[in-house]
Amino acid sequence: MFLDQNTKREHGRKVQLGNVNAAKAISDVIRTCLGPRSMLKMLMDPMGGIVMTNDGNAILREIQVQHPAAKSMIEIARTQDEEVGDGTTSVIILAGEMLSVAEQFLEEEMHPTVIISAYRQALEDIIEILRDNISVAVDVSDREQMLKIIRSCVGTKFIKKWSDLACQIALDATSTVAMEDNGHREIDIKRYAKVEKIPGGTMEDSKVLRGVMLNKDVTHPKMKRKIKNPRIILLDCSLEYKKGESQTNIEISKETDFAKILELEEQYIQQICEDVIRVKPDLIFTEKGVSDLAQHFLVKAGITAIRRVRKSDNNRIARAVGATVVNRTDELKEDDVGTQCGLFEIQNIGDEYFTFLTECQNPKACTILLRGASKDILAEVERNLQDAMNVARNVMVDPRLVPGGGAGEMALAQALNEKAKLITGVSQWPYRAVSRALEIVPRTLIQNCGANTIRTITALRAKHVSAGNTSWGIDGETGTIVDMNDFGIWEPFSVKAQTYKTAIETAILLLRIDDIVSGTKKQIDNGSGGGGEAAPQTSAPDAE
Q1: What pTM does this model have?
Q2: Among 81, 125, 172, 387, which one carries the catalytic annotation?
């Protein structure tokens, strides 16, 4: 053998079947998290913190795995979350099932490339059928319709009890952040829709603020804590004496020189305060510090200052009140002042002070204020809201919908079954297997609410055989079959399309692997006795 003696090599069928089993193991962990009757998973992170969630990506982020195929499965949940923000659970279940149905062909000695080409063909057909035959267009301006779509996302989550409130919050936040620029629509939720979690109060107190909220108080007790229609300035520089970049030494020969140096510092601070006071602001936010002397000048001028604001918060305030962030006080001009804020006030919630900039005229940034019993609950609600906002964003960007509740999958399975009859040769079997794998979504929904799986799936299959029944799916609460047109569960086309693409492409990727060489490292001997070789240690990087 030409490989190093510490290197472990597996190849051939053993690797392929090992990959399939690893993918199945990961998807089995997630399977009970699909649908409105989903279970929560409780995870302990290495620091001793607890995560309770049914979000596929959040669960897999915490799990440490050793098998390389399992690692790539965890990676796809992250891809799905970053790309469309929802469908992380479905994508893992589908990818696991796609590999599971390929297992039979591998055991029958069918070549992986035959299976892969059939899967590729099936994926192209799935996207085409989904776009042309199953999806329907939606009017983004119809608020009622949009709330229905978001409700289908929220319905499977922890916050379904407050689904009306959650849907309103998600839609309001996403609509606020949306910007049209030369026909291009930009909806940056991550940067401009900030979620602020304050433990205490009840869930019903949560709301979207037409403006921004910060966990800050004024710098000086005499400054005003409530201002109507304030003129706001945003600074990226400190209102204190500049210290030298490197260490500076000054030699003083006369005792009057020391007073002179102090005087220079005072003059400098007075100068920058005069620059600010010149544009007559009522309120200043700075990312850096404000010295005591500067506070004194600002209080005399009746100006309120708030210091050490985060850069991201400053950018949000700029979008909300129409101000510009300025880097030098001597460059301030009238255009930089934000005048679109209706009310500035500082409120005491619990034992902390919070700054509110609300009643903005046309804010392009917002803050979602969440209240709830405990930190764990708030963290889960935030994750759920992020999913709901992503769904709203996806529909606004690509306004097409697909029936939910496993109806889309069942309709695709039926269409692929019909197409498989036209395929000649051995590749029709893997092609047909894809249609069988798609049925895992309705089947899992039935299993999770404890209904009779075989009977319900057979009835649903029979419904989809007759034309025009593409919208029949599973009611995830009771496990009965319902028409999604009446039931009102719809999902964005972009989420569904991304789920199928990611799941099938991952299955293709893992099927192509026929050799795993795991290089191992010798432990470094610290001279702690024992001339024997240290035990080999696998150098596979830890999962995220």
Answers
A1: 0.76
A2: 387
